[in-house]
């Protein structure tokens, strides 16, 4: 059964995905519309994708601006990641605050990340798969980010592997939120 856990950045939540092991392997359910709606998560799936990352890769902190903002459900079906979200909603009492949780193939946790949050992660294992369910389609013109090391999180890496794009983002202190 799905389990929902409130975190310090409402309405973001941690979701424990139902997972079953037997002699054949594993079966994990990653989405159930009715149960999400019962928890007041009205999620309309528009796009889905995954990334495969080497250990010590940091991807993030990504989001899309209005009118193409999106919510995400993110989980890690292979390996492990430190998944991180930042509240970018300017009227929120938790604006600029972040939460970080390990998502892995063994703990079956997922993040529900509402609109108005940035998202990123650090791969804790080689070939970590991060899977995204997204409520809007990709829009290059609305694709943005916050510099990964500008909001107070210690990533505990001396030499992280990042893309040039992710290194080019502005720090949180210079960000003017459209949310």
Lay out the secondary structure.
Layout: E1 3-6, E2 13-16, E3 19-22, E4 25-28, H1 33-38, E5 47-53, E6 58-64, E7 72-78, E8 80-87, E9 98-104, E10 109-113, E11 117-123, E12 128-134, E13 143-145, H2 164-167
Q: Can you describe what's shown?
A:
The protein has helices spanning 33-38, 164-167; strands at residues 3-6, 13-16, 19-22, 25-28, 47-53, 58-64, 72-78, 80-87, 98-104, 109-113, 117-123, 128-134, 143-145. It is mainly β and 179 residues long. The chain is globular, with a radius of gyration of 16 Å. The chain starts with a strand and ends in a 12-residue tail after the last helix. The model has no long low-confidence stretch (mean pLDDT 97).
Trace the largest sheet across and list its strands: 1-2-10-7-12-5
Beta-strand percentage range: 35-45%
Output the number of helix runs: 2
Number of strands: 13
- The low-confidence runs, each spanning 5 or more residues with pLDDT under 50, are none
Helix content: under 10%
Shape: globular
Content-based structural category: mainly beta
Order of helices and strands: EEEEHEEEEEEEEEH
Task: Provide keyphrases for this structure.
single chain; 5-stranded antiparallel sheet; 6-stranded antiparallel sheet; globular; mainly beta; 179 residues
Task: Give a short synopsis of this structure.
This protein has 179 residues and is mostly beta strands. The protein has helices spanning 33-38, 164-167, and strands spanning 3-6, 13-16, 19-22, 25-28, 47-53, 58-64, 72-78, 80-87, 98-104, 109-113, 117-123, 128-134, 143-145. The protein is built from 2 helices and 13 strands, in the order ββββαβββββββββα.
């Amino acid at each position: 059964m799905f389990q929902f856990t409130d975190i310090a950045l409402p309405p973001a939540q941690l979701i424990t995905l139902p997972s079953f092991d037997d002699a054949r392997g594993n079966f994990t359910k990653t989405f159930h519309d009715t149960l999400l709606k019962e928890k007041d998560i009205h999620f309309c799936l528009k796009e889905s994708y995954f990334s495969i990352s080497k250990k010590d890769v940091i991807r993030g902190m990504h989001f899309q601006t209005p009118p193409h903002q999106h919510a995400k459900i993110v989980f890690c079906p292979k390996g492990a990641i430190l998944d991180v979200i930042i509240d970018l909603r300017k009227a929120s009492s938790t604006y600029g605050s972040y939460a970080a949780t390990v998502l892995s193939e063994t703990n079956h946790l997922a993040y529900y990340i509402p609109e108005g949050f940035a998202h990123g992660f650090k791969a804790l294992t080689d070939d970590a798969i991060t899977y995204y369910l997204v409520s809007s389609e990709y829009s290059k013109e609305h694709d943005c980010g916050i510099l990964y090391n500008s909001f107070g999180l210690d990533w505990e890496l001396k030499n992280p592997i990042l893309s040039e794009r992710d290194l080019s983002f502005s720090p949180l202190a210079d960000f003017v939120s459209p949310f």
